[in-house]
């Protein structure tokens, strides 16, 4: 049929999870925890449903949750957004990204994305009639080459999408990136979409450089986060967007005709959880750092070479000592023949570096799951 996304297939995450299930592989592919969500959250969700919080939530999100998000933002980044005019609750970061792009990108306009990047950005841009302009990150450190980004700006550039901590690499912005980003956007009308879904999963005492810390950046930004990552519940699909009032108003126009509102009981549960247990997100970095360190230690006993990880819950590994297959073929082989599922990197690129031999492993898993994977990876 003559449709709008001719080049798009099923996402690599779905494809690899299906392949893992078919072959009984240990699934370190698609990013999701295999451990429980905090008990308090389950209780709050149950209570919300029993107390009748089962009808439409306000279009913009339950007020108590928007206030909790605003207060948390101030605690974390020293900026208090207005809960009514700057915070919107949506159905996952995926919806926030879609809504933000559709709110501002017009046919023929360009959006700069930094490759490798999350796979939902480009289809959202395409559906809005825009064009994604891909600028590669450094193939090893995944640092931004700001001169290349600057060179990609044209009079048609409408938006720049950044992601820190970064999926798939785990790289993070430093203060220098923020300075370069500010410099680049100053005196332009370019909007910024900052995907910060892994904001609380940060290691080695590094500081998450949220765009919300910087007045000059946040005045043009949609900042997106996801409770799926912070509270181990990727299936609940609740996220949010913080943006200045004028941008929030535009985002809400899309949101109200996209989903209208998001799952109400979970909104009540998160409102309670954020306020009652701030230590959950405060300690999330340490929780995942222990997993990262243990997993990396174990990887030293394999022929996979781990790359550095500053944040997020993914570990990139170089498999060139094991195989010369391209990454898609390697990840299929690893799943089918060796019983461990990883995600290839090339689907995150417009054009992946030809010689790159990298795969992504998710370590948001119980020790028993990671141990089972390592036992198989040792035999490679
Ligand atoms: N952005 C990035 C970088 C992600 O990794 C994810 C989750 N895979 C999303 C956005 C989407 O988040 P959500 O599940 O809340 O829609
Ligand atoms: N964000 C998850 C990942 O990167 C996948 C989300 C999805 O399956 N759409 O693995």
How would you sum up this structure, described in words?
There is one protein chain. This protein is α/β, with parallel strands linked by helices and 380 residues long. It has 2 domains: 12-30 and 283-377, Aspartate Aminotransferase, domain 1 (Alpha-Beta Complex); 39-277, Type I PLP-dependent aspartate aminotransferase-like (Major domain) (Aspartate Aminotransferase, domain 2). The protein is 41% helix and 15% strand. It contains 15 helices and 13 strands. The chain has helices spanning 12-23, 39-50, 63-77, 92-104, 121-127, 146-152, 175-185, 215-218, 227-230, 245-258, 264-276, 278-282, 284-299, 327-338, 367-377; strands at residues 26-27, 87-90, 110-115, 131-136, 157-163, 191-195, 221-226, 239-242, 305-306, 314-318, 340-341, 343-344, 358-362. It has a 7-stranded mixed sheet, with helices on both faces. Strands 9-10-13-12 form a 4-stranded antiparallel sheet. Helix 1 (12-23) runs parallel beside helix 14 (327-338) and helix 3 packs parallel to helix 11 (264-276). The protein is globular, with a radius of gyration of 20 Å. The mean pLDDT is 98.
Task: Provide a quick synopsis of the model.
With 380 residues, the chain is α/β, with parallel strands linked by helices. It is built from 15 helices and 13 strands.
